[in-house]
Design a protein that fits this description.
Length: about 180
């Protein structure tokens, strides 16, 4: 089997797996919404967790698969020079900003669509409930960006250092 055939087969497997993953996710949400009991979708949740875990388990030997990727699909620069580090930090910021925005939107949706009530601490007693809610959401959003940036920075820099170390080991073996 040549390399092109392997790529076509792996793309087919990836598409099938993605469709299965989406179907499991939709099924779990549908069961939860229709029954209001999370235990009815236990099997789907287990499979949703196990699919990425099994992929990570089998892909752990290939260090290049663990390098973070930009939205365009390119890997972030793995160099140790200043421009590479600057580009990675910019990537971490945009990644954490996007993730914090998704968390904020999901928080607002669950608060108003599922809970139908805004229950929060009243830190700002002199302000109206709406303004207090907006300020709390803004503070939560900013803290989320900082936390997600710190997690992304530490995790991805660890991954890149491990990748560079592995490359150095391979270069040392060649010499």
């Amino acid at each position: 089997m040549d390399e092109r055939s392997q790529q076509l087969i792996s793309k087919g497997i990836a598409i099938t797996l993605a469709l299965l993953y989406v179907a499991l996710f939709v099924s779990a949400i549908w069961k939860y919404v229709s029954t209001k009991d999370i235990t009815n979708s236990t099997l789907e949740i287990i499979l949703i967790v196990m699919i990425p875990a099994s992929i990570a388990w089998f892909a752990r030997k290939d260090e290049s698969l663990t390098i973070p990727r930009m939205m365009s699909g390119e890997t972030v620069p793995t160099g140790t020079d200043v421009p590479s580090k600057k580009a990675r930090k910019r990537h971490y910021f945009w990644d954490s900003l996007g993730f914090a925005l998704v968390v904020l939107v999901l928080n607002i949706l669950t608060t108003f669509l599922l809970e139908k009530d805004w229950g929060s601490f009243h830190f700002f007693t002199g302000l109206s409930d709406t303004m207090s809610m907006v300020i709390l959401l803004l503070i939560e959003f900013l803290i989320s960006i900082l936390v997600f940036y710190a997690i992304s920075y530490m995790w991805d820099e660890f991954t890149i250092k491990r990748y560079n170390h592995k490359l150095q080991e391979l270069e040392d073996l060649d010499e």
